[in-house]
């Protein structure tokens, strides 16, 4: 008996990395999954990986920075699976490594458009549908950089801090609807965007990064997916409006 049997979950950004790991884990726990992403090839591969293990999933091509596409994503979940119980607002983009003084309007708008506006646009249409089921859970994927900003990451830092604030407002507004809303703030995780995704096989850089984490290693997508599972199940029934920092203790490293 899966922990998410008969539940329907949307996972944005599920074509790779943390989103794919979350979609696979939730499907293995019995949820039907809407894989929502701009990346079609990766999205279909996530669906294939779920179906191969006997799970149920469908890919909906979605740019979460576009309201009409985000609305259609939620509608597709309702039409395909009869309702919605869980929203994982995970889709995100990286930021150009630039000082504020060198950041263009377009670069600022692109990162805020996906990493903050995309969370708003994904969650907004989901709320009424989750409420119709008598409640459920929303999880946003923010970042340790929303808590402790990183130099040359201004749009990303601001978007993730905004996503954390939005999560708390949503928790307040959704509590009467029996929808718990929490955020996961990952540290460095091995995906296309993080960890070895940007460090490549630069062993010196990898070692330096690992040394600056209390647990002396970079995280794996499945370790973040496990936090997401905790936040959507009864195990976290008394938690809402919280940010779970999953960073191997990176934020506490003092050298
Ligand atoms: N990997 C890390 O080190 C790390 C650390 C902190 C936070 N995060 C956050 O975790 C989340 C997942 O990132 P990841 O590390 O798995 O990276 P990833 O690049 O593997 O996955 C991001 C996914 O989001 C999708 N995406 C991008 N723009 C989109 C859009 N407009 N609409 C829909 N989908 C879109 C991409 O196609 C991709 O599949 C992001 O929000 C990221 O900011 C990652």
Helical content class: 40-55%
Cα shape: globular
Number of domains: 1
Q: For the record, give the distance between the C-alpha atoms at the N and C termini, rounded to a whole number.
A: 45 Å
3D architecture notes:
By secondary structure, this protein is α/β, with parallel strands linked by helices. The protein has one domain (8-242): Rossmann fold, CATH 3.40.50. 44% of the residues lie in helices and 15% in strands. It has nine helices and seven strands; from the N terminus they run βαβαβαβααβαβαααβ. It has helices spanning 17-28, 40-52, 67-81, 105-115, 117-132, 154-174, 196-199, 203-211, 221-232, and strands spanning 8-12, 32-37, 56-61, 86-89, 136-141, 179-186, 243-246. Strands 3-2-1-4-5-6-7 form a seven-stranded parallel sheet, sandwiched between helices. α1 links the parallel β1 (8-12) and β2 (32-37). The longest helix has 21 residues, at 154-174. Nicotinamide-adenine-dinucleotide binds next to α1.
Strand-helix topology:
Layout lengths: L7 E5 L4 H12 L3 E6 L2 H13 L3 E6 L5 H15 L4 E4 L15 H11 L1 H16 L3 E6 L12 H21 L4 E8 L9 H4 L3 H9 L9 H12 L10 E4 L9
The site of nicotinamide-adenine-dinucleotide has 31 residues, from α1.
Structural features:
44% helix; Rossmann fold; 255 residues; single chain; binds nicotinamide-adenine-dinucleotide; seven-stranded parallel sheet
